[in-house]
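Re: [ENG-882] Designed sequences occasionally contain unexpected residues at chain ends

Forwarding the minimal case from QA. Structure tokens:
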């Protein structure tokens, strides 16, 4: 298993993993924009044949928050079912978080997760240390609430 920074030629594989696993999908223009604008903070996991089996797609918010803080945001993370329980999601998240802090000097990272996604919530809260900042009612297209989560970063 190899984990590395995502490249433009990975985007179809990343999108395929997204389509296979998640109900929130994005047009290719969205993927390209992230890869071109913040190339250092999105990562892929590939198997021994070079196939994308997981990814994290992240960005830096274009406007600092009210306190002038720069922060990152995880738009999407997914690992194929066949490659889960190997610690790939944790590794992908940690690499992205480290890059946000060291390259962009982000003070925190945010993400949204479905309120019903217990496995993801456990990863974010129990393994990575995220905290729930707020509940966003009917955030998702199907009306499900989202937990808006945050993690303070330390610059490396």
């Amino acid at each position: 298993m190899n984990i590395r920074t995502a490249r433009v030629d990975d985007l179809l594989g990343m999108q395929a993993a997204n389509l296979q696993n998640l109900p929130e999908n994005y047009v290719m223009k969205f993927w390209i924009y992230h890869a071109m604008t913040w190339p250092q903070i999105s990562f892929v996991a590939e198997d021994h044949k070079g196939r994308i089996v997981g990814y994290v797609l992240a960005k830096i918010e274009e406007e600092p928050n009210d306190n002038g803080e720069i922060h990152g945001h995880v738009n999407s993370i997914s690992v194929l079912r066949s490659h889960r329980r190997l610690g790939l999601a944790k590794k992908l998240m940690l690499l992205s978080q480290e890059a946000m802090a060291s390259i962009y000097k982000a003070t925190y990272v945010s993400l949204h997760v479905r309120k019903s996604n217990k496995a993801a919530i456990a990863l974010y809260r129990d393994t990575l240390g995220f905290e729930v900042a707020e509940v966003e009612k009917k955030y998702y297209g199907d009306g499900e609430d989202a937990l808006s989560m945050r993690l303070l970063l330390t610059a490396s």
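QA comment: On inspection the terminal residues look reasonable. Residues 72 and 109 are 4 Å apart (CA to CA). Proposing we downgrade this to a documentation issue.
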